[in-house]
Specification:
Elements (H helix, E strand, L loop, with lengths): L13 E4 L4 E4 L5 E5 L9 E10 L5 E2 L6 E7 L6 E7 L4 E9 L5 E10 L5 E11 L8 E5 L2 E5 L4 E6 L6 E3 L3 H4 L11 E2 L3 E11 L4 E11 L4 H12 L3 H18 L11 H20 L28 H13 L3 H15 L24 H18 L2 H26 L9 H10 L23 H21 L10 H28 L1 E2 L4 E2 L27 H14 L21 H14 L2 H13 L8 E5 L4 E6 L2 H16 L4
Helix pairs in contact: 4-15, 5-6, 5-7, 5-15, 6-7, 6-8, 7-8, 7-10, 8-10, 10-11, 13-14, 13-15
Length: about 650
């Protein structure tokens, strides 16, 4: 199948959505991406350009004109986005409001035009839309009442006005003619991935306002009469009422999930914390698949793989930390769905989880796996239990966790040659001899680190396994004799007790291996792996969240000192690891937040506040956190609205409030 390349569009600077649909925008209000029926599949828009023709001018693009001045903001505590566009040449002010209805798969684009000048403005409004197309699913277009229906075999995207009639349209070849605001076509239907339509707003007199309401409806490509009926139904919806109800829904949502009880800010610093907190609450439901509980890392940014491997997939590890934040925010049902539906659906027969998945549970493109993801799921199951105290949840996920633990034990035996028992059954020996004829004599492929860049034996990965072992022991302890439906089954009980002893022995051996192989006597610090032995912020994972080492141990203190010497930048932001060259090696908010967690563990509140402050001051203008921060501008860089960053922020914020440090 030959598929045409999508335009390179990187920064998603604003995000809106509902349970099934998300849309992303630039800071100038240009629609970048539109996903339905889930947050990772499908994306329909190659571009969606809008503009006005005033008094016989050429087309003035709303999102790209030298005379335009922009201001963008969300309605308070909502996912309703406003972009003010002021054309200083004609003194025309346009307020563009974008929101997605809560119960309909419809993106509403409302435009208010105000003539702030002294002359009449004869105004026409243009839309030029190109959908993504490929040879097996080519896009066509049909003109309908008030707009156009662009469609392929399995979907349709209809763009139409609530009340205005079409002024003109062009189905084929409008890329040049629309620049002059001169589109025309005798055909009502045609084969074209891009098409244009226009509306005549008439004369806008000085200080007069005019309103244009546009709906974008996404649906399967049903028979024509059904589609036209659906468009007709949507045009009858009261959009003012929908706007009000959408704002009300999100404000109630924020209020319901304000579990930390944050109140009105007393100063600008507290206001930034409060706004990041509320934006996190509003972001998480936009990342989650409501059917499976799968959670994307962020809305997509690089479809053409020009700089990365893409982001709109579910990594079990990222999702584990996001669900931990969700638990803090009273989103326990969403967390439970992730484990009981998504994780069960995606676990391999051997007990592991692959690198990443689509949120519906299907395997996504991968280039290896990270053993910490398998360990993190077991860790996350017990973390969720700590919030809910639901034994039923533990019982429902016990087999899944035991399968994962079995895989982790086999991985340790395969690569570290450690196991938790002194004696081994002969049939077990024979089985391993028969199955160990694989890559370099190993049964299992070596794991990548959590950054997905280096294969090998990594301290963070081993610490996550240690924590998974801790978690399964705690799960057994929490369930007690309710560990299975066979409460009085002596053989089952003996097997569990033997498994517990094995795991405890493995933990001892694992810790010994780390101290012997991942502690550098010359540097007097732990190192990230057995190969390059660099300093890496993820070493802190052995302290928090995985609790393998105590935060005040001398070796840990020395390691943190080296982290500060090698990873802290001049702005106070921390890089991931030494010589990180991904996207020029910027600081990462999660690195700073990891340092904050460490300093809270040691009781060093001043240092904790300093590392946290960097994250607060570098949030974007909509209080979305990036994957990285540009050290020269102190603005979010690359991925904006990264779920992992927001999750770490919430996890840290809870601890700060518990320590009375804001």
């Amino acid at each position: 199948m030959v598929k045409e390349k999508m335009e390179n569009k990187y920064l998603n600077e604003a995000i809106i959505g509902n349970k099934n649909m998300i849309a992303t925008f630039t800071s100038k209000g240009e629609l970048q991406r539109l996903y339905f029926p889930s947050k990772d599949n499908k994306q329909y828009i190659n571009f969606f350009h809008t503009g006005v023709k005033i008094n016989n001018s050429d087309l003035i693009y709303l999102q790209n004109d030298i005379n335009n001045v922009y201001k963008q903001y969300y309605d308070t505590d909502t996912n309703v986005l406003n972009t003010e566009i002021t054309n200083t040449y004609f003194n025309l002010k346009i307020v563009q409001t974008d929101f997605i209805m809560i119960k309909e798969n419809v993106l509403v684009k409302k435009y208010i035009f105000l003539n702030d000048g002294k002359i009449d403005l004869d105004t026409k409004f243009y839309i030029h839309s190109e959908l993504l197309s490929d040879q097996n699913n080519q896009v066509g277009c049909k003109i309908v009442d008030g707009g156009m229906m662009q469609y392929a075999h399995d979907f349709s995207v209809s763009t139409f006005a609530k009340e205005h009639k079409l002024c003109s349209h062009q189905i084929n070849g409008s890329k040049e003619t629309i620049k002059r605001g001169e589109i025309q076509d005798k055909d009502y239907i045609g084969m074209s991935k891009d098409s244009s339509i226009s509306y005549d707003l008439g004369i806008i007199k000085p200080q007069e306002k005019k309103i244009l309401e546009i709906c974008i409806l996404i649906d399967e490509n049903r028979n024509l009469s059904d589609m036209e009926d659906e468009i007709d139904r949507v045009t009858k919806i009261d959009l003012d009422k929908e706007y009000t109800s959408t704002k009300s829904y999100w404000r109630k949502y924020v209020k319901a999930h304000n579990s930390l009880g944050l109140k009105e800010a007393k100063n600008s610093y507290e206001e930034r914390i409060l706004e990041i907190y509320k934006r996190s609450i509003l972001l998480f439901p936009l990342l989650a698949n409501q059917e499976t509980g799968g959670i994307i890392a962020s809305p997509e940014i690089d479809e053409n793989f020009t700089k990365c491997g893409r982001y709109a997939y579910c990594w079990p590890r990222d999702a584990v930390f996001i669900t931990k934040a969700m638990d803090i925010l009273n989103m326990e049902k969403e967390t439970e769905k992730f484990y009981k539906v998504f994780c069960k659906k995606t676990q391999s027969k051997n007990g592991m989880w692959e690198q990443r998945f689509y949120t519906d549970g299907k395997l996504a493109p991968c280039w290896g796996y990270q053993i910490d993801e398998t360990a993190s799921v077991v860790y996350g199951v017990y973390e969720h239990y700590k919030y809910t105290k639901s034994e039923k949840f533990l019982k429902d996920n016990l087999k899944m966790c035991e399968k994962a633990i079995d895989f982790l034990k086999k991985y340790l035996k395969d690569w570290l040659n450690i196991e938790g028992t002194e004696e081994r059954d002969k049939d077990k020996v024979q089985e391993e001899i028969e199955n160990s004829v694989n890559r370099q004599g190993h049964k299992y492929h070596i794991s990548y680190d959590l950054w997905e860049m280096n294969e090998g034996i990594h301290l963070y990965s081993l610490a996550s396994i240690y924590s998974a072992f801790d978690s399964i022991l705690n799960i057994y302890k929490a369930l007690g004799k309710n560990v299975s439906e066979f409460e009085n089954n002596r053989l089952k009980e003996e097997k569990i007790q033997k498994n517990k002893r094995t795991i405890e022995n493995l933990q001892t051996q694992l810790k010994k291996y780390i101290n012997e192989n991942l502690y550098d006597e010359e540097k007097k610090s732990y190192v990230r792996n057995t190969e390059d032995r660099k300093m890496d912020i993820s070493i802190l994972g052995a302290i928090t969240p995985f609790n393998m080492f105590k935060p005040k141990e001398k070796k840990i203190r020395n390691t943190v000192e080296r982290i500060n010497m090698s990873l802290r930048t001049y702005t106070g932001g921390y890089q991931r690891f030494e010589q990180d060259n991904y996207m020029n090696g910027n600081p990462w908010p999660i690195a700073n937040l990891w340092m904050t967690l460490y300093y809270l563990e040691t009781g060093e509140k001043k240092k904790a506040k300093e590392t946290f402050d960097f994250v607060v001051k570098t949030a974007g203008k909509h209080y979305l956190l990036g994957e990285q921060v540009d050290n020269s501008t102190l603005k979010p860089n690359w991925v904006i609205g990264l779920g992992w960053s927001h999750a770490m922020f919430i996890i840290v914020l809870e601890k700060l409030y518990k320590n009375n440090l804001k």
